[in-house]
Amino acid sequence: MSDASQEPWSSFGLGGEPPRGAHLATMRHGYSHHGVYIGGGRVVHYAGLSGGLWQCGPVEEVPLLRFGRGNAIRVVEHGTPAYSPEEIVRRARSRLGEDDYRLLTNNCEHFCNWCVCGVSRSAQIRQPLRLPLRALTALFHA
């Protein structure tokens, strides 16, 4: 029987090892951080601001423990992904080393959605932008 040191997912509230190609998310200070599980306790993610507010990092492969930083990790459900788990992993690895992080247009959530669905988007960026746009629309159409 394996212990928790061999099964890092057990320390993050995951019921078992996530499936390969799973889109993972974990909370950070005020935002959720996203990565793609590639198997063997490894995650590919856009380091972006995860190293600190003023440090942007590249797409990198890291241990699940480093990705989670002691926080709970959840699997982001996508319904039926556009790609097989093997293709999702291949897509994630194809961008290793990319260093073009942009908070509003190319962040860790954009990266994961592109890997899984083929569409680069970020709900956590779109949601806050909607409120000011609605307010401006209401103001000019009143």
Descriptive terms for the model:
142 residues, alpha+beta, endopeptidase fold (from Nostoc punctiforme), five-stranded antiparallel beta sheet, 4 helices, 5 strands
Summarize the structure.
With 142 residues, this protein is an alpha+beta fold. It has helices at residues 64-68, 85-94, 108-117, 123-140, and strands spanning 23-27, 32-39, 42-48, 57-63, 73-76.
Task: Please characterize this protein's 3D structure.
The protein has 142 residues and is α+β, with helices and mostly antiparallel strands. The chain has one domain: Alpha-Beta Complex (endopeptidase fold (from Nostoc punctiforme)), CATH 3.90.1720. The chain contains four helices and five strands; from the N terminus they run E-E-E-E-H-E-H-H-H. The chain has a five-stranded antiparallel β-sheet. Helix 2 crosses helix 3.
Q: Please outline the major beta sheet.
A: 5 strands, antiparallel
Strand order of the largest sheet: 4-3-2-1-5
**CATH superfamily heading:** endopeptidase domain like (from Nostoc punctiforme)
Give the helix/strand class: alpha+beta
Mean pLDDT: 82
Low-confidence runs: 1-5, 128-139
Shape descriptor reads: globular
| Oligomeric category | single chain
- What Rg do the Cα atoms give? 16 Å
The total domain count is 1
Distance between the termini: 66 Å
Number of helices: 4
Please write the CATH class name.
Alpha Beta
Q: Give me the CATH fold name.
A: endopeptidase fold (from Nostoc punctiforme)
Helix content percent band: 25-40%
What pattern of helices and strands is seen along the backbone? EEEEHEHHH
CATH architecture field? Alpha-Beta Complex
